[in-house]
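Appendix B. One record, verbatim.
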Amino acid sequence: MKLKNYLFLHASLLLYSIGGIFAKIASSKAFLSFDFILYYGLFLCVLFVYAILWQQILKRFPLTVAFANKAITILWGIVWGYLFFGETLRWGMLLGSIIIVSGIYLVVSDDK
């Protein structure tokens, strides 16, 4: 697979993970308040764009490779939690991230 395709895949997954930020912010707002509707609307917009991008990803990658790479969103969730929400990093989270990245590498390298 071309590097350009992998960059497209991971940029799309990064966008998907950003949707999680909007969802978490929306969950802290009063239901149906302006802020809730704004952040929930942003979340839905991200999901809409991601759904279109995901279809393009599936045209470029085997399903196993695409889904294995989707696990990287867990790593992004840890990063966003630390940066935006002040969540603490734990050794188990870092170990889990290493396992995720290793699993992705194994699936992608096996595809070749």
